Amino acid sequence: MKKTSVQVSAALLLGFALIGGACGGRDDSSSSESTETTASDSTEAAFIDPAADCTDYKGTQGVTGDTIKIGTVRPESGSYAIYDNVTKGLEAYFKSANAAGGLPAADGKKYQVELIKKNDEYDPAKTPALVKQLVEEDGVFALVGNIGTETNKSVRDYLNENCVPNIALATGSTQWGDANAYPWYISGLPSYATEANAWISYLEEVNPTAKIALLYQDDDFGQSYKAAIEKAIEGTKITLVGEEGFNPLAGSTTEASVAKLSQSGADTFIVGVGGTACPLTLSFVPTTWTPMTMISVTCASKTALALAGGKDEGVYMAQPTLDPADPADQTNPKVVEFATQGAAAGLDEAQIQGGIASVGWGFGSMFALGLKNATTVDRAAVMNALYSLKDTTFGLIRDEVTVNTDGAKDPWAIEGFRIVQRENGAWVEKAPVTNEEGKSNSFAGQ
Amino acid sequence: MRDFLQILLVGIGDGAVYAMLGLGLVVIYRSTGLLNFAQGEMAMFSTFIVWTMWSLGLPMWLAILGGMAGGFCVGALVHQVAVRPVGDPHEKPLAVVIVTIGLFLGLNGAAQLIWGTLDRSMPPLFGRGQVTVFGVAVAWQKIGAVIVLGVMVLLFYLLFQHTKLGLAMRAVASNSESASLVGIPVPRLLMLGWGLAAAVGTVAGVFIAPNLGLGTNLMQLTLIFGFAAITLGGFDSLVGAVVGGFVVGALSSVMPRYITIFEKMPLAPAFILILAVLLFRPEGLFGKKQVTRV
Amino acid sequence: MSATATTGASAHRSPGDWALKVAPWVVLFVILAIVPFQFPSFRVEQFCFWMTLAIAACGLNLLTGYNGQISVGHGALFGIGAYTTGILITEFGVPLFGATVASAVLCFATGILIGLPALRIKGLYLALVTLAVATLFPLLLEQFSAITGGSGGLQITSPQLYRGEMRERPIRLESPVAGLENDQWKYFVFLGITVVIFILSRNLIKSRVGRSLVAVRDNEVAAESSGIPVSQVKIVTFGLSAAIAGIGGSLFALDQGQLYPSSFTIVLSIYILVAVVVGGAASIIGPAIGAVFYGLFSDVIVQQMPDRIQPARAVILGVLLILLMLLAPGGIVGGFRTLQAKWSARRSSALNSGPDPIV
């Protein structure tokens, strides 16, 4: 009885599968609206050749008439919802561009951007279904400004296999340096390793025998810092005298870790954590310990530092972009443009000054640059354009920072930092911008 | 040695907060005999009320009183609407567990609907200042937490030992049937117990929120620490909750710093405590022995 | 026709009634068979996820619904199954479904281990311990990131031929049937396993062992005195329940191809419990209905709502749970049964009182 019922239902199932296959067809709505293109007709040997690398290439999916559909995935809820402001900035950029007639492309047309947002709560377990929905159901041309390291990693194989561009990732993980294996990904931030290298270079200058206490977020983001620091201090007199990992999911604060590090004898404190944990870490530093403190660039926004309870005064950071809240930067034309057009597109004063929306604004502008430089409006052509940038700039990147890319040899757009110290809510320059063109991948530790 | 002290003090401060959460759990356990898995969410909800009043410009202490009053109403309402109609928790444990989980989901979702999903920042009640004692820095916030806990315990003691109301509540806790026979309004007192527990939770929330950031997941892990505290102390013992809170706070601060296997799991010592106590001494350190009814 | 169908017990075996009984199943199977051809591949993968949830809920139902032991921690067992599968495939090259079998065995052993203390810790206290397990589990995954990949995730890969060379690539279930795409093939394989598991657990419940499960739930002392080895029954039930949850987790791993600790938080445990309770604890098909209900609700309906009001999902679920406990503790299946009973009572009373039956 047991066996037969199992067998019967198995047989039924198989039968029904065949019936189902016969009577219903899958509507392939996404492919119907796209035309198959073979290869972009660029003159040089382009970085990406879809004819060789893609099996079912849909180079113009998501482009209809003069509209381009763009998808983005971000945390709209959950503990990382603060980064939703990145997407607000991205949206403002596209709104502003649409109002001005659209984004110009090489074919002489101007394209209106339709941005479709999905909320993955910064959870890589939720990202794949949403990204697949964007690609298969909504039929987007590309993804722009996706937030999070693990979230982006969770769809890396899928997007690269299907030849869908993922542009201006809102993460600086060293993994995005592997453009050979994953050419359809390009980061919109500098590599975390390059940032860490900038810290150590500055330390070598001002305190060659520094004793570092490192607090790092125990995930890819923080480990990128840790590995790069370990690599950078090799052969110097700088030592790592204490290190503590912080697991943001463990339900505790960094307080006990800071307490331990404060007793390590360190004279330098590097805070390689993000989110609200970073400014709170500053507030936990005991008054008995007065190290030189370096913070992650992800923590350096006005919004975040407001949580430090005044302990942000005097901290150092490596800074690649302009800060809309810094009086010294507010007269810069890039900041003026962002502030006026961003406000017109619906950003409020707190968002404009906050230092997070401006990052998203930069991502929108990076996509616009790719579209403008592309030989045709085609997925591979846009990626190839972004992988061959020459002495250009976008978003709110500091004017002294040079932007160059060259395929897998140099996949990082932003590779320059200056060192600044916080004084009365503004940043004071301590060391000018050093551009490490093409070297970012070499800074990544193991 | 000094680093150990520094870390231990952090743990004692955290422990005071776990004890506050534990006090609420004990009050509910005493009155209605159930483990309230929604206690953390009730505290989160009323902490948001505090935040709202504070950000509207009320002074912090008034906002906290307002939040406690709000929490009291939420707790009382929850008892009347959801908990009471389900019945005896020890006869229908599944139904009660499901109801508290329903409350957990409902309150969490409601908070997200009302206050959005962004973490709010709340200033620490006692500021970010520190004092240095024997070369070890202690935050005023930690000292404040211990003092506030002391005041709360004192108030509970006065309530339960020296007021008619407290006496009646104790009568209900020890035997609700005979209590109702002598004319004590049992349901109303149970409702009061729930309200009180939620109000107490507010204070715990006010101390946790400045450090973890006030979000809707404020209490999800903290609740387990609270449960560990009362498991160790004894589910029905207020003193036990306090002692348990300090022990759990100290262990979960110190052990991850010195024992590699706990490095990323400050929750693990709390879990081991729960399991070991339930297995070998279910009544905890200060609790009354449970007589299982057949 | 209407007269014969309603005149009492003998009519039950009439061909008309048999057809009525079988018809809904046929309809169900036809729907299940057509579904994967009507939706894009990401949806089909979601359906596969619902099936893994249904399997885990089926396991929890044995334990909680039929045996009366509450677990708020089945998400952790689901996770153990998933990670075992992932690690066996990636590190040891075990074939895909071989890893599923191994996961089931390991989870069975784990279930036995948890079942032992559960003999002493009961009711609400067992709920507390399992809740703590569920909360701790993702942290355990972080702690042992050397094997699990921690928050960086575990990519489940196997050596595959790609661009002319052997490389570690994400696993995939290659469809051997022409005309079936990979995801559709996966769907039918999963559906087959799900159906088999539900049929096996139905057979178990209808057997003598199943009756002793229920006897232990209803009254341990009475069960003991009628010769049922209560402790053994409880421990083995825990083991079986864990094994089934582990199979669900293993299939989840095969469905996703990558695992993250965030998939296995307390939320998962709660949702498995929700699937059991909403569908109907102590009914065979209930957990499957609950899982599909939950899937439809959270992956389809909620996604249609504006982002700002999406948290309403939790409110609706919470209120629904409380209402169910207060009004219809039997869940959807229980409610349906009550309606059916009322209806047949009305029908028989109508038969007795007058000659005009309502059909």
UniProtKB/TrEMBL annotation, chain A:
Region (Disordered): 24-45
Domain Leucine-binding protein: 67-394
PROSITE patterns noted in UniProt: PROKAR_LIPOPROTEIN (PS51257)
Keywords, comma-separated and alphabetical: Signal
Keyword Metal-binding found: no
Protein name: Unannotated protein
InterPro entries in alphabetical order: Leu-bd, Peripla_BP_I
Pfam families named in the record: Peripla_BP_6
UniProt entry tagged with the keyword Secreted: no
Species, as recorded: freshwater metagenome
Compositionally biased intervals (Low complexity): 31-45
TrEMBL record, chain B:
GO terms of biological process kind: amino acid transport
Pfam families linked: BPD_transp_2
Primary localisation category: membrane
Transmembrane residue ranges: 6-27, 60-82, 94-118, 138-160, 189-209, 221-249, 261-280
Compartments (UniProt record): Cell membrane
Alphabetic keyword roster: Amino-acid transport, Cell membrane, Membrane, Transmembrane, Transmembrane helix, Transport
Topological relation to the membrane, as annotated: Multi-pass membrane protein
Keyword Transmembrane: yes
GO cellular component: plasma membrane
GO molecular function, one term: transmembrane transporter activity
Family assignment from sequence similarity: Belongs to the binding-protein-dependent transport system permease family. LivHM subfamily.
PANTHER family on file: ABC TRANSPORTER PERMEASE PROTEIN, BRANCHED-CHAIN AMINO ACID TRANSPORT SYSTEM PERMEASE PROTEIN LIVH
Name recorded for this polypeptide: Unannotated protein
The organism of origin for this protein: freshwater metagenome
Phylogenetic classification of the source organism: unclassified sequences, metagenomes, ecological metagenomes
Automatic annotation (TrEMBL), chain C:
Keyword Membrane found: yes
Transmembrane segments annotated in the record for this chain: 22-40, 47-66, 72-89, 96-118, 124-141, 187-205, 235-254, 266-294, 314-339
Broad class of where this protein is predominantly found: membrane
CDD domains linked: TM_PBP1_LivM_like (cd06581)
InterPro entries in UniProt: ABC_transp_permease, LivM-like
GO MF term list: branched-chain amino acid transmembrane transporter activity
Bilayer topology annotation: Multi-pass membrane protein
NADP found in the keyword field: no
Keyword entries, A-Z: Cell membrane, Membrane, Transmembrane, Transmembrane helix
Alphabetical list of Pfam families matching this protein: BPD_transp_2
Compartment annotation: Cell membrane
GO cellular component, one term: plasma membrane
Record's protein name: Unannotated protein
The species this protein was found in: freshwater metagenome
